[in-house]
Write a structure and sequence with these properties.
alpha/beta
Length: 364
């Protein structure tokens, strides 16, 4: 018995049987179709028996402009090497002589496409507002768990790689800055913010123009009733005189910028790299961050890199502002703590509290 997935198979079989018994004209009248339709299926039945009653593809048998196999193999190799790159990104980064529809077709045929994630709520488009910000004045900060990444997790367990990533995303030009730790704590979040603000001051940015926005996580003083001067918010506002704001409650889209870059880093970095140790991990993380900030073209920003946007919006800022390499935050836990930055309003006036004291506050 032939089981057909074609829903019209039984109808065609009945049509052929009726035509063999009653003739073509009577069958066309009985089934309400043209006589040529009866002739077609009767001819196929006599030539191929039951297999001839299946629908045949109407796709052309030859495509003269189809992508040549060597170029297809190159597309597939690049996709496997960079699994986070879509069709447009592959064309832009590797100068492929193909259209994005052709690349999409090649990836789809070979099963290398990713199912898009469902979004329960449409993101509000604030690109025009964010693009109007002065560069390096508005930032989003968040922590990414690295323990749920299927490609990275075995390497993390074997090589003792970091378990958490602290990300600071700049909104105007789209750059990001990374730091890593093995624990999720207020201490490490404070160290990351303190180090980043010191870096901005060294490049001539007035910290009073800087705003850092976070969610209500405990590492960002989200559950703290009595704020401490050496805590996360105290370090930002009292020591550096910058501004800190929390995202509005019940507003998941407020952190969309940093969550988007988290998704990008997962596909382009963690899913694509094999590490040999901690030193290799931080070397590759530094290379990826530098490439992202200097050379990678952002589709949502008219295919311009953060460096290209910075040169247009704020040519007075040196490109070295992108040179803040990722590092393990544990190495910043020194007895002295703090940064003595020339030009800072509090430098030479008072010393910073020890980060061992800060650690004792968060562990209490």
């Amino acid at each position: 018995m032939i089981r057909a997935t074609d829903a019209q198979f039984a109808l065609r079989h009945n049509l052929v049987v009726h035509a063999l018994q009653h003739g073509i004209k009577a069958t066309a009248y009985h089934f309400g179709c043209a006589r040529n339709t009866v002739r077609k299926w009767l001819r196929r039945y006599r030539r191929e028996h039951l297999h001839g009653l299946h629908a045949h593809s109407r796709a052309p048998q030859h495509c003269p402009h189809k992508t040549q196999p060597p170029l297809q193999r190159k597309v597939l190799a690049l996709r496997r090497k960079t699994p986070g790159f879509g069709a447009r990104r592959l064309i832009a980064e590797f100068d492929l002589p193909l259209g994005h529809n052709a690349v999409n077709r090649i990836l789809r045929v070979h099963g290398l496409t990713r199912k898009p994630k469902r979004r329960h709520q449409q993101k509000r488009d604030l690109r025009a507002i964010k693009a109007a910000y002065a560069p390096f004045t508005h930032f989003r900060m968040d922590t990414k768990y690295l323990t749920d990444l299927p490609v990275y997790w075995p390497q993390m367990q074997t090589l003792g790689l970091p378990r958490f990533q602290t990300t600071i995303r700049e909104l105007s030009v789209g750059a990001h800055f990374l730091a890593y730790s093995n624990e999720l704590s207020k201490t490490y979040a404070t160290l990351a913010a303190d180090r980043f603000l010191a870096h901005l001051v060294r490049h001539g940015i007035d910290p009073r123009t800087v705003e850092i926005r976070t969610d209500l996580g405990s590492e960002f003083d989200g559950d703290t009733v009595h704020l401490q001067p050496a805590g996360f918010i105290g370090t930002i506002e009292q020591h550096w005189h910058a501004r800190h704001e929390f995202n509005p409650p019940h507003c998941p889209n407020a952190n969309a910028d940093v969550e988007t870059v988290h998704s990008t880093i997962e596909g382009e970095f963690f899913d694509a790299q094999v590490f040999t140790g901690r030193a290799d991990f931080f070397a590759k993380a530094n290379t990826y961050q530098l490439w992202y900030n200097v050379a990678r073209k952002n589709m949502s920003r008219d295919w311009q890199s953060p460096l290209a946007l910075l040169e247009k919006k704020a040519p007075q800022l040196a490109p070295t502002i992108f040179l803040l390499p990722p590092l393990p935050l544990e190495q910043l836990l020194t007895p002295k703590g703090g940064h003595d930055v020339p030009g800072h309003p509090d430098s030479q006036k008072k010393s910073r509290p020890s980060f061992h004291y800060l650690l004792s506050l968060t562990m209490a």
